[in-house]
Amino acid sequence: MIKADLHVHTCYSMDCCTPLEEIVNRCLKIGINCLAIADHNTITGALKLREIAPFRIIIAEEIQTSTGELMGLFLSEKVPQGLSAEETITRVKSQGGLVGIPHPFGRPPLLSLRAKRSNLLSDKVLSQVDIIEVFNSRSPFPGSSARAQGLALKYRLAASAGSDAHTSGEIGRAYVEMPEFNSPGDFLVSLSQGKIFGRRSSPLVHLGTTWTKVRKRLGFHPHPSRERDYTGRKGSC
Q1: Read out DSSP for 19-78?
Q2: Which domain CATH number covers 90?
Q3: Kind of pairing, strands 68-73 and 56-65?
Q4: Is residue 233 part of a domain?
Q5: Confidence band of 202 (pLDDT split at 50, 70, 90)
Q6: Cβ-Cβ contacts under 8 Å for 99 (sequence gap 6 or more)
Q7: How many whole angstroms separate alpha carbon 99 and alpha carbon 116?
Q8: Residue 228 lies in a domain
Q9: Residue 166: which of 220, 117, 202 has the closest Cα?
Q10: Is residue 235 part of a domain?
Q11: Residue 206, pLDDT score
């Protein structure tokens, strides 16, 4: 069995400063041995972490579509942001990847976003989705997990969980204990046999994320790491 945190960010996300080596060290410390690295609109961090991590890394991407966020998993190429949900799904599937919906009910229900969210959760889109994230440690609403679980059951979709970590201390707050897998198809079977564990992060983590986003927009970036990675190559951010 493996312990998989299926939603983690690195310093390659616009709102995260966590170095790759710090992620590896945290996972080794707490026993997480599989990560889906789903940076916002990029797979660069995931590809680099796969080179240095001594455990399985799933190349993923949290993709901003025109109607909300989708997650592509088992990617080989970046999927552009800003496309329709349908086109985004087509791009992910053309790579042999899987499509998930992260935190489907886990963000503030702003009036301006309700129409877009309803389109993302439409029958047309959900009929093409593979995975629903039913537990996200950063989701502030207690009822969001139950609603997401209901959505997964209604459409007979695999249920996943992730910390949505933007700092190393958040990694492992949510994970799935599941059998090993060798392919995207195997992953779905293993996920269906998995057991979800999770606890919520403090709402204060969002303040840190917002501050990081502002700093990066102003041109402040974390210094590249000079530490050696776990295969003898030099890591970076």
Answers
A1: -HHHHHHHHHHHT--EEEE--BT--HHHHHHHHH-SSEEEEEEEEEETTEEEEEES-SSP
A2: 3.20.20.140
A3: antiparallel
A4: no
A5: low
A6: 70, 71, 72, 73, 88, 89, 92, 93, 128, 129, 130, 131
A7: 18
A8: no
A9: 202
A10: no
A11: 58
**Res 226 pLDDT > 60:** no
Kindly state the tokens that stand for 104.
């489907």
pTM: 0.87
Determine the structural domain holding residue 136 and report its residue range: 2-217
Identity of the amino acid at 88: T
Determine, yes or no, domain membership for 237: no
Instruction: Tell me the three state secondary structure of residue 158.
Output: strand
Residues 81-135: tens digit of each pLDDT: 999 999 999 999 999 999 999 999 876 544 445 555 668 899 999 999 999 999 9
- The domain total for the chain is 1
Question: What does the pLDDT read at residue 225?
Answer: 44
Tokens of 9: 């960010």
Query: Which amino acid, one-letter code, is at 58?
Result: I
